[in-house]
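Case study 2.
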Amino acid sequence: MRKTAFVMSVVFSVFFLLSVVYAASLWKDGSNLYADRKAHRLGDIVTVIIDENTLFSQKVTTDSEKKVNVSGGPGKGPLFKLIPEFGVSGDNKYNGDGTNERKGELKAKIAAKIIKILPNGNYVIEGKHTIIANKEKVQIVLTGMVRADDISSDNTVHSTQLSDAEIHYVGKGPLGRMQKPGILTQIFNLLF
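Prediction:
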C-alpha cells in the first residue's frame, strides 16, 4: 500500500509539473485575448481617419480718395514779380472689391507609425499612402501629435484629434498637369 501511495504521489507530481509547464500564455508580451491592442510603443501602427472639410472665404473692399491742391505766386524781389500766380489741383478716386473663396474636402484612412514618444506621453505619428492608377500618382502624407487617450480601442484616431497636424495631398500625372496654367498664361499673369 505504501508503494501504491508513493507511485500515485509521483504520478500526481509529474502531472502537476507538466500542467504548470504547458500552462504558458499563447499571447506574446503578457497581453491576452481581452486586453485592448492600442498602439503604445515606437513603431506601432495606428489608423488615422481623415475627414477634413475646409472653407476659406475672404472679401476685400478698398475705397481711397486723394485730393491735391498746389498754388503759387510771385515772390519778393524785382525778378519774381514777373511770375504770374498759378495753381494746380488734382483728384484721384479708387473703389475696388474682391472676393476669394476656396472649398476643400478630404476623406481617407491612412496607417501611421509612432515615430517618437514625448516625455508627456504623447505620440508623434507619421504616415504615407500612395495610390497609382492610370499613370496618375496620388500621395497622402500625414504627420502630427496624438494623445494616448485619443486612440480608441479599435486602434483608430480621427484627424481632428491630431495636434500640429499636417496633411499633404499631392497628385502628379496627366490630370495634375492639366490643372496647371500653361506657360503663356503664366507670363500673361505675371505681366498683368
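The beta strands are 45-72, 86-117, 123-133, 136-146, 156-158, 163-172.
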